Model the fold of this input.
Amino acid sequence: MSSTAPTGATTMLDDFMVRAVLAGLGVALAAGPLGCFVVWRRMAYFGDATAHAAILGVAASFAFGVSLYLGTLAVAAGMALLVARLTALGHAMDTALGVLAHSALALGLVAASFVPDLRVDLSSFLFGDILAVGRTDLLWIWGGALAILSFLIWRWQSLVSTTVNEELAMAAGIDPRVERLVLSLALALVVAVAIRIVGALLISAMLIVPAAAARGFSRTPEAMAILASVIAGVSVMAGLWGSLWFDTPAGPSIIAAAATVFAVSTLLRRP
Amino acid sequence: MKTALIAAQGLTVDRPGSREAALTNVDFAIAPGEIVTVVGPNGSGKSTLIRALLGNLAPREGKVTRRPGLRIGYVPQRVQIEQSIPMTVRRFLSLPRRIGNDEAAAALTRAGVGDLSDRSIGALSGGQFQRVLLARALLGDPQILVLDEPTQGLDQPGIVAFYQLIEQVRAETGAAILMVSHDLLVVMRASDRVICLNGHVCCEGTPQSVGSAPEYLALFGGRGEGTLALYQHQHNHDHDHLHDHPSQVHRHVQHSPDGCNHNAG
Done:
């Protein structure tokens, strides 16, 4: 990472810790509101399946020499659409989703073992490697996060209406299938964005834990979405700090911090 | 009825996802300011009729005409709000269209729950929630309110209060009201016209005439006793006997010895 004419900004971005913080906050920004929908719509398995499929995407990117982000995004989007289709068939899809979520991971790991370059590096995609984030990664992460955020803001009223009650939404002319598609694609995008930060195994946690912690303190969907992003952001900072201080892996440390916030919030809400 | 808000002719509608008809050859019309109640046993096609009239279900045969630009306020059957999403009454009213505070307050007051604006939806009683749904349906000044079993899960006093509210809303706004209901006794008293449905229109007319129609009695023999007490006429009720009514106010659509069972035979 050499820069020929260091200005204030470039010098700052040369610091791996600054890049890590920025990357983590980008993910937190998108994960907050999107995670709320995962909680409200009980899409935890959906998130798992999509995130696990990303490992397959990583293997494909290495094997065919395409951009890591594009490969991950394509495979995650494919999985998200498949799962959305299954979910639309009914609530009895729990088993099928479980099968998909775990076989996607297993297949990804098997595929990864055929790619020599990836074998060395596999754990960084499973658990994230936020400290290795470069400037191109930052562009992808913030571009993706802002895309997700604008996507959600654009569809917000329809998404919330569909989530609250599909029939009322349909009576108002909203097509729930469109909203499911929007969420599926947003989920695929967040997987591509977050895989470098917390890794495929913990992306779901990054979505669910902050949102769950925000639930007890929110009276409206908007408040919960904003609070979830704040909690995710705080978890990123705390996790990174803990990771430096105790020399622990950054991705799991971030989730551990979020889980701590969740535990404290649950205790606070208890009468 | 040329002034009808919604009219249907020869409506045959399949159950969603099947070729089995839920409704066969149904004619329907509702005039401005009219309160019409659809009664019928479970599976008799009441909700199917509502959804076809609203345009949510395409009929296999026949056609539905809605007055152009008709403003409809709709409360579906058994609305369940996702409990994991935090939601105040006020925020709920702004879904999917954002509305002003004045409009929200006016609708809540009209529905008799003006003080609930800041409450959490999950903390409401069944009766309060139905009134909030009614308030939501009243937004946008509807010409017709369509309520699918609006009193399900309410106790008897709650049901009576709800129908009093419905009559009051009609008086204040002039909106027509189309309801589906199981609460025969109270509902019928609040209605201008009752349609008794069982896959087809069995009979329709004033509450009094339908309450004493043999088709109706065959369907609701046991449960309609309360209604009978209310609308008891001079003639003797005999389920197996097709008698002439002194005043033929209601329209018999189909006569058969076993009343109105479309599966019979």
